[in-house]
Amino acid sequence: MANSSRPRVPTAAGTRGSTAGARVEGEAGPAATAGPADPADARGTDRGEERTGAHRTTDDRHRSDHETTGHHHDTDWETAHRTAHRVGRELPPRAVSLTEAIGHTLAEPLTALTDLPAFDTAAMDGWAVSGPGPWGLEPGGAVLAGHDHPAPLADGLAVPIATGARIPPGTTAVLRRERGRTLADRLRGPNPSPGADIRPRGQECRTGAGLLPAGTPVTPAVLGLAAAAGYDRLTVRPRPRVAVLVLGDELLHRGLPTGGRIRDAIGPMIGPWLTGLGAEPVSVRLLGDLPAGSADRAGGPRGDTLVEALLDAAGSADLVLTSGGTGAGPVDRVHPALRALGARLPVDGVAVRPGHPMLLAELPDGVPLVGLPGNPLAAVSAVLTLVAPVLRGLTGRPEPDADTVRARLTEPVSRHPRDVRLVPVRLPAPGWAEPVGWAGPAMLRGIAVADAVAVLPPGPAPAAGRVRLLELPRP
């Protein structure tokens, strides 16, 4: 059980929440106080997501966003989640060898090309016997795996047989080695029941049987099943290639925070999490606050504006992620760059805490883009809300059934009055979810020890009972 008396843990807030690192979302002025350490202490809005430096509330920020980006209100969390899955249009399939298929996704159903097993086989080492014992021993040696068309076995006889070997015609059962003994030319032991320790042909499946549906991730076990079913190649949708742009002049990438600058916490974790979601990170580019630029800019080196950096990223990737810069502050460049490119924004802000400044765009060439907020836990929220379903869409994987991935909270947790809350939880026992605390938008301490994230719908009373869970990606 989480301790409701856990002391509040202070967190370092940076200078601007709309770029990557440990910052306060949407903050334009001095450092602001982050959210409380324990979920039960978070009352109403997330204090760390207000523009405290400029004395502007969350509602003020929404009005400002409408003036600068044209969006009226945040998309509700469930709609944003479903929209992201639709925006991830399936990648073209390709045939690859079994050795290349691991980590990809089946683009076609896997059907058996043969019966499994393909013939009656011995399930244990011992003797193939015909009829009741004792049995005479068939001359000519043992029947071994890999031998084809063993000689028929006459009634009253037995022959040594190895696990996996083809059953001789006339065999009624296999007597396990530990249950029999030979004396001279006779085998003695208890009479096995008919068919004992024989794997009959087609016991697992018959030719043409459906084994796995399209959209199944190719794991080592799937490779083994495909090989057993007769496949040399598989038709798959490849792992989506993802390019990441980490924005922010205030970010340090090594050493201790100093001189008003802070460590980038998003860059180191985003690559492994993408791998855990079945994607292939092709680049993680660390940028400052590039000017937005213009779509028709000519001359100069490539990549000296955010527009050009986005174009370069989209040219080598199936999905582009930006970290930071999604707000409406003076150096938040993502919205101006997307406008310059003529991008479409199916989701421009989500009614979720932490992470409401996240966005989902479609670049002119059809490549989706997810803008992660700059606060670390807010970025995690965007990964689970938008990135994960986009990747499932790209690979043709279905969305998990929300009704089956649920657990009961070990204690009540405060909810946001208007927005969904995503709260890190441990899973101490099957069917139970324990809040771990440290759930402020700039905090990673809670998510580092969590097994999942609980989805708390908005409401005036604390959440209790069963809640939906989002699994955390595991590399």
TrEMBL record:
<keyword id="KW-0501">Molybdenum cofactor biosynthesis</keyword>
<comment type="function">
    <text>Catalyzes the insertion of molybdate into adenylated molybdopterin with the concomitant release of AMP.</text>
</comment>
<keyword id="KW-0500">Molybdenum</keyword>
<dbReference type="InterPro" id="IPR036425">
    <property type="entry name" value="MoaB/Mog-like_dom_sf"/>
</dbReference>
<dbReference type="Pfam" id="PF00994">
    <property type="entry name" value="MoCF_biosynth"/>
</dbReference>
<feature type="compositionally biased region" description="Low complexity">
    <location>
        <begin position="11"/>
        <end position="39"/>
    </location>
</feature>
<dbReference type="GO" id="GO:0005829">
    <property type="term" value="C:cytosol"/>
</dbReference>
<dbReference type="Pfam" id="PF03454">
    <property type="entry name" value="MoeA_C"/>
</dbReference>
<dbReference type="GO" id="GO:0006777">
    <property type="term" value="P:Mo-molybdopterin cofactor biosynthetic process"/>
</dbReference>
<dbReference type="InterPro" id="IPR001453">
    <property type="entry name" value="MoaB/Mog_dom"/>
</dbReference>
<dbReference type="InterPro" id="IPR036688">
    <property type="entry name" value="MoeA_C_domain_IV_sf"/>
</dbReference>
<comment type="similarity">
    <text>Belongs to the MoeA family.</text>
</comment>
<dbReference type="GO" id="GO:0046872">
    <property type="term" value="F:metal ion binding"/>
</dbReference>
<feature type="compositionally biased region" description="Basic and acidic residues">
    <location>
        <begin position="40"/>
        <end position="80"/>
    </location>
</feature>
<dbReference type="InterPro" id="IPR038987">
    <property type="entry name" value="MoeA-like"/>
</dbReference>
<keyword id="KW-0460">Magnesium</keyword>
<keyword id="KW-0808">Transferase</keyword>
<keyword id="KW-0479">Metal-binding</keyword>
<feature type="region of interest" description="Disordered">
    <location>
        <begin position="1"/>
        <end position="80"/>
    </location>
</feature>
<dbReference type="InterPro" id="IPR036135">
    <property type="entry name" value="MoeA_linker/N_sf"/>
</dbReference>
<dbReference type="InterPro" id="IPR005110">
    <property type="entry name" value="MoeA_linker/N"/>
</dbReference>
<dbReference type="Pfam" id="PF03453">
    <property type="entry name" value="MoeA_N"/>
</dbReference>
<protein>
    <recommendedName>
        <fullName>Molybdopterin molybdenumtransferase</fullName>
        <ecNumber>2.10.1.1</ecNumber>
    </recommendedName>
</protein>
<comment type="pathway">
    <text>Cofactor biosynthesis; molybdopterin biosynthesis.</text>
</comment>
<feature type="domain" description="MoaB/Mog">
    <location>
        <begin position="243"/>
        <end position="393"/>
    </location>
</feature>
<dbReference type="InterPro" id="IPR005111">
    <property type="entry name" value="MoeA_C_domain_IV"/>
</dbReference>
<dbReference type="GO" id="GO:0061599">
    <property type="term" value="F:molybdopterin molybdotransferase activity"/>
</dbReference>
